[in-house]
Amino acid sequence: MIPKTKIQLLLLLLAYTLTGLAQTSQQTYKEAYDLNFTMAYTPNIVYPWLENAAYANSAESVFLEEAHRTFFAKAYYTDAPLSDRLQTELEQRIILPSAKGKEAVIHLETKGYNIRQATMTIQVLNAQEQVLRTEVCTFSVDTTLTRASKNIDISSAEMLNIQINAVGKNLQEAFLAFSALDIIIDGQSIRQLPIRQPSPIHLNRANIHTPINLQTTRPWSRLQALKNKKIIGLGESIHGNTSLQNMAYDYILHAVENQNARLILLEMPFERALAYNRYIQDERYRLDSSFVQAYPSVSFLNRLRSFNRNRPAKNKVKIYGMDYNYMLTKQQNTAMDIFDFIATINPKAENQHLNQLLVLLTQEDKRLATQFIQTHQQQLTPVLSTEEQASIAHILQLSTDMGASLVKRFQLRDSVMYANAHFLIDNYAKEPTTQVVVYGHGVHINTSSTYPAVATTPLGGYMHQTYGQSYHPLTLLVGEGSTTAYNEEMQMVEAPLTASPAGSIEDVLKQISVPAFYLPFTPEFNRIALTRFKGSSHIHQEFYPFNLYQRFKGAFFIRRSAKDNTEKQVVNTTQPSQQFAKKLKQRQEILRLVREKK
Questions:
Q1: Which of 8, 116, 214, 531 has the highest CB neighbour count under 10 A?
Q2: Which of 10-24, 173-187, 526-540 has the lowest mean pLDDT?
Q3: What are the backbone angles phi and psi of residue 558, rounded to the nearest 5°?
Q4: Number of helices and strands (H, E) in the chain?
Q5: Nearest CA among 258, 241, 335, 345 for reference residue 294
Q6: What tens digit of pLDDT does each residue of 149-178 get?
């Protein structure tokens, strides 16, 4: 029996996480990279292990107590509600010592129980963050400590990326405990060596910036570099920073009003954004408060609505979500989000065809709803536009195609974002002169890598493959300030950002003495450097090593973000559940009305 001593580590339960604080070069690799898997948050641990968020519901974090030692482990219990087996993955990216060698041997020590498959994947990366070589070590797990080893050529290497993945036996209690990792380079262990930090970037005369004064009425008038770009990607380095969000939305409005931007794609579920798009298109539509999130704000939507007023349909701007609802339970899924949207159009169940569609959305076979839309287009058009019909059929089919595995649905998010973006661009912004603005976290928008989030091809990578140089990704960075995210008690609170480490991208950009500016990236940025990454949770670390030049074409930078003066309410775990319970009651009431109309 596995002891169920849980620890309250804040996992990568949400899509993103962590980053590193700058420390002195005297720290050793064993300490800085937590090569003994203590999984503790201490000043000595500069770069903690990342836990793959896709497996958050498939394993619990525990400490296994033994006579002389405590082991960190991932465990599965048969009463887990959303998984039928243990699945877990830890990842570490290690900047190699200055004296790079030719060959490395990676040793991993673990033990476990009921593990069906375990692998250690090692990637060799260069200074451009490109994968030079990959080796996979498949190893057996026993209840006693065993060592797995793998040799790999590290010539021309800057970093190693190591992923440890395990899958347990179906419906059987299982655990995998982590003991130690060692890297032997040309016969010498790195564990006691001082860590190496990336060399700093030095700005030169080629780094020409364009100031942006967000306090003026026309802050973007001097920025002509983006005027003729077909698809502009805005990738914020952190979620929840009001200044970055305000900058992004202000730029989007500028692009709509001055650059013929007619399609806006946001990092939110496609299904839930249907209400936003109808709101800015239809003056008669009232936006249900349950659809309104913190961002985009109602004031932003009202600006778009005002822009669309009295314009012909072909010249109106559209707003959609590029993400999808990756959850797949009876109450939380794509079909139920569509149900909620249609219910706002037909609140009194007066339209018989919409009533039929609502009922079909509650059925297990979602193809019935898609078929109904296809065969009743003419009858639905007076209340559900042809654009809405096509959009609903698209996302409903796409969500079905992603399957029922919660792990896979999460892992496939970026490919779904691309499928949605491709569908919308080809249908509503295909003309060369029609601009598209895509706004989300930089981990999705960039063309190179989703590190340090779930490892996959990013949305931007797919976009670059399809649209080439027509896709222009930019990052939004901030030097100082605060951000709003979940704390360890799952409350949404505002907290200060970590100070920018010396030599980091943010520290370098602060040398430009203007409050905000746009800077195209020059080859000087084509190297590994520390830069901020933060998602939906407050984590101790905020800086990671990667190559911004390979990921983006340039940056919008705010030296110091303003205090968030918008009204906030601390959201605890009970309030969302109460809101969800209210939503379930509303659905039941709608279905009751539908049955009465038969």
A1: 531
A2: 10-24
A3: -115, 120
A4: 16, 23
A5: 241
A6: 999 999 999 999 999 999 999 999 999 999
